[in-house]
User: Which sequence fits this backbone?
C-alpha cells in the first residue's frame, strides 16, 4: 500500500511512543528523533510504501537505543487481554460453530494493536464491539471454496495476543483437511508475534511454525528469507492477518494465488485504500 498523508504523522507518533518505551535517556530520544525525521523527510513521498518506511523507522529505534524489544511489556499485556477473553470467545463459537464466526473472532483479535491504535486504547471494549460486527466486505464464501480445493496454506500472523484468536481459526481450518504453516517474525518489531510467542500458546500443535526470516512490519518481498519465499510460493493459498500484511502483499505480484486478508480497518488510510469505513471488519480477496 502506498502512503497517505496521515502516515507521516503516524510514523512520528509511533516514534515518540516507542522511544518512551525503549529508553529513559532524553538526549538519546532527541538524537533518535532527529534520525527518524531524516528518514521520513527523505523517504516519505507520493508512491512510497507505508510498511517499508515504518519498518525502517522501528529498526532505527531498536538499533539506536540498543533495545531490541521496546514493546515487551505491551506484548505481555496483549497476551493477557486475549487469554482473559478466551472463555467468552469459546462460548460464542460453541453457540455458532461456523467458519464465518471463527473468522470474526480472528478479526476481533486484530484490534489488539498498540502500534496502529496507540497505547491508551481501551482494548477490551474494542474487542467486544468488533466481535459483534459482521464484515462489510466479505469473501468468506470464496475463502471456504479455496479451503476445499487446497492442500497447503500459509497463514501470515500479525500481533501477539491476536494469535490466541488465530489459533482458534487455524483449528477450524484444519477441519478442511489442509496443512497449515504459520509465518511469524524472526525478531520483535512493534508488538508483532514471534515464534516464542506462538509456542507459549501451543500453536505448534496445530500448524508448522516458520519465520519470515526478518523483522519487517508485514511482508516486504525483498526482506524475506529464501526459506519463507519457497513456502509462500508452494502454498495453495494465503491467509494474511492485519494491516502490515495487507500493505505489503498489495505491493507483490501474487499471480493467480488466492490471497485473503482478514483485518479490521483500524486507520483511515487503510480504510480509504480498501474503500470501507474506519473500524469496519474485512474479509478481502486480493486477486478475485
Assistant:
Amino acid at each position: 500500500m502506498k502512503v497517505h498523508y496521515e502516515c507521516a504523522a503516524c510514523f512520528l507518533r509511533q516514534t515518540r511512543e516507542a522511544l518512551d518505551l525503549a529508553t529513559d535517556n532524553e538526549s538519546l530520544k532527541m538524537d533518535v528523533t532527529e534520525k527518524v525525521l531524516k528518514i521520513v523527510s527523505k523517504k516519505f513521498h507520493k508512491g512510497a510504501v507505508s510498511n517499508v518506511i515504518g519498518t525502517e523507522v522501528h529498526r532505527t529505534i531498536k538499533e539506536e537505543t540498543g533495545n531490541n524489544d521496546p514493546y515487551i511489556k505491551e506484548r505481555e499485556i496483549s497476551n493477557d487481554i486475549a487469554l482473559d477473553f478466551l472463555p467468552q470467545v469459546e462460548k460464542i463459537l460453541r453457540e455458532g460453530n461456523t467458519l464465518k464466526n471463527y473468522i470474526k473472532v480472528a478479526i476481533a483479535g486484530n484490534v489488539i494493536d498498540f502500534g496502529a491504535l496507540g497505547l491508551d486504547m481501551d482494548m477490551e471494549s474494542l474487542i467486544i464491539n468488533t466481535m459483534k460486527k459482521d464484515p462489510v466486505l466479505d469473501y468468506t464464501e470464496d475463502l471456504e471454496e479455496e479451503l476445499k480445493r487446497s492442500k497447503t496454506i500459509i497463514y501470515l500472523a500479525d500481533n501477539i495476543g491476536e494469535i490466541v484468536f488465530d489459533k482458534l481459526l487455524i483449528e477450524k481450518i484444519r477441519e478442511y483437511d489442509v496443512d497449515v504453516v504459520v509465518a511469524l517474525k524472526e525478531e520483535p518489531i512493534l508488538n508483532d508475534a514471534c515464534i516464542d510467542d506462538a509456542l507459549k500458546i501451543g500453536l505448534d500443535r496445530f500448524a508448522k511454525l516458520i519465520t519470515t526470516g526478518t523483522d519487517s512490519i508485514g511482508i516486504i518481498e525483498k526482506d524475506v528469507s529464501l526459506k519463507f519465499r519457497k513456502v509462500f510460493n508452494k502454498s495453495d493459498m494465503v491467509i494474511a492477518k492485519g494491516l502490515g500484511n495487507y500493505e505489503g502483499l498489495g505491493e507483490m505480484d501474487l499471480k493467480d494465488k488466492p490471497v485473503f486478508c482478514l483485518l479490521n480497518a483500524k486507520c483511515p488510510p487503510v480504510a480509504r485504500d480498501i474503500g470501507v469505513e474506519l473500524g469496519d471488519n474485512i474479509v478481502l480477496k486480493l486477486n478475485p
